[in-house]
Specification:
The protein is of the alpha/beta class and 397 residues long. It folds into two domains: 133 residues, Aspartate Aminotransferase, domain 1 (Alpha-Beta Complex), CATH 3.90.1150; 226 residues, Type I PLP-dependent aspartate aminotransferase-like (Major domain) (Aspartate Aminotransferase, domain 2). It has 13 helices and 15 strands. Helix 4 packs parallel to helix 10. The longest helix has 22 residues. The chain starts with a helix and ends in a 16-residue tail after the last helix. Bound molecules: pyridoxal-5'-phosphate (PLP). Pyridoxal-5'-phosphate (PLP) binds next to helix 5 and helix 6.
């Protein structure tokens, strides 16, 4: 059994705050500060360069990758950490295209996060081989999978609406048509159960600062199906993805398996914080996290809809098709979110009109949901958002 009171106790949650934005940046695990201090003082401070061997720094990207593998249905040895998600999207997409060299279409959807689409655009223009980025509505992806498509690059859970694709079904259809799949798990990892191996996904990538609570800018992960692991070319052929980095050969030879997806020197301090965050995940069972997440989102939707008729649910009503977030559309959504933040309920706003709330059972419980609903009801029914101070947009929304 996952003891959610015990997991909640492991986080630093500021006084007077109900944090419904763990889908953007997870909160600080209490012991992460000590872990960072230990790594800085005992390892970096005392060991200096010998830390690469003595403290096992060089193996951190795969050691931490194995801890994440458990949460996304991958076997150990097929996930590696490094860089940011945008970079890993580029790498996975380039590798996937290379596996399907005779086709020219990259299929994605309009619910994808812009960075993923931008990376595809950049790669296409750089390759200059006539590739096309075909962006369809999320509901139309399944029908758009044809023999023309080289790669289907999809984010499983829509960052705006929380709508969830059926990974298993889309991957199966993609494979029937000879399409290679790249799944972005940014809003899935730590939010809903994933079975990459069971779905036979080809590539998957994701970030660790959202539901996994690894801290701002925590490194991303990449998964390569073992079927492709020794065939996929990494595109970013850095020295730490070389088969023998310390032979300092003049020519690149990709390492065996997932190691080839490494690029350069791993961010050891950031990995230490993430590693600490993953200790809390060791206390959990993903199916129970999902069950509680569904209960929390259902409770939230029912409460908000009963009290706030002016808000329109923008997330799927069917919990089975929803990730771990709930979005409501409201024309003055930006101001409404600012008014909520001023009253201790932290959600976020996504243009043009989405008020977004993330639910993370590791530290959000029913009491938090009820308290948040009461504050939202107050802000909405009494138009507390209608003040100039809440209408000036900050750099990060
Ligand atoms: C959050 C997110 C990103 C962010 O990429 P970074 O390189 O980590 O800034 C990219 N893609 C998706 C789908 C996301 O949700």
């Amino acid at each position: 059994m996952t003891d959610f009171a015990a997991t909640k106790a492991r986080f630093h949650l500021p006084e007077g705050v109900i944090y419904l934005d763990g889908n953007s940046l997870g909160p600080l695990p209490k012991h992460a500060s000590d872990r960072m201090a230990q790594v800085m003082q005992n390892e970096w401070g005392e060991m200096l360069i010998t830390g690469w061997n003595k403290a096992g720094w060089m193996d951190q990207p795969t050691r931490v990758g194995d801890r994440i593998a458990r949460l996304i249905g991958a076997q150990p040895g097929h996930v590696v950490m490094g860089d940011t998600l945008s970079i890993k999207v580029y790498q996975a997409l380039a590798s996937a295209l290379k596996l399907n060299e005779n086709r020219r279409v990259i299929l994605s959807d309009s619910g994808n996060f812009p960075s993923d689409l931008y990376m595809a655009e950049g790669l296409i223009s750089f390759l200059d081989q006539g590739h096309e980025l075909r962006v369809v509505a999320p509901e139309e992806v399944e029908d758009a999978i044809t023999d023309e498509v080289a790669v289907m690059m999809i984010t499983e859970v829509d960052y705006r609406t929380g709508r969830m694709h059926d990974m298993k079904r889309l991957t199966a259809k993609a494979h029937q048509h000879g399409v290679v799949t790249v799944w972005d798990l940014a809003h899935t990892a730590g939010a809903t159960p994933v079975d990459l191996a069971g779905a036979d996904a080809d590539f998957a990538v994701g970030c660790t600062y959202k539901y996994l609570n690894g801290g701002p800018g925590a490194p991303a992960f990449i998964y390569v199906n073992p079927r492709h692991a020794n065939a996929a070319l990494p595109a970013l052929s850095g020295w730490l993805g070389h088969d023998a980095p310390f032979d300092f050969e003049l020519n690149y030879r990709p390492a065996k398996g997932i190691q080839r997806m490494r690029v350069g020197t791993p961010p050891i301090l950031a990995l230490a914080a993430l590693d600490a965050a993953l200790d809390i995940w060791d206390m959990t069972d993903m199916a129970q996290v999902r069950a509680k997440s569904v209960a929390l989102t259902e409770r939230f939707i029912a409460g908000v809809e009963a009290a706030c008729p002016m808000l329109r649910l923008a997330s799927p009503r069917d919990a089975a098709q929803r990730g771990s977030q709930v979005s409501f559309a409201f024309p003055e959504g930006y101001a409404a979110i600012q008014a909520l933040i001023a009253r201790g309920v932290i959600g976020d706003f996504r243009a043009p009109d989405i008020m977004r709330f993330g639910f993370t059972p590791l530290y959000i419980d029913e009491g938090d949901v009820d308290a948040a609903v009461n504050i939202i009801a107050d802000v909405m029914t009494n138009r507390l958002w209608d003040a100039d101070a809440y209408k000036t947009r900050a750099k990060v929304t």
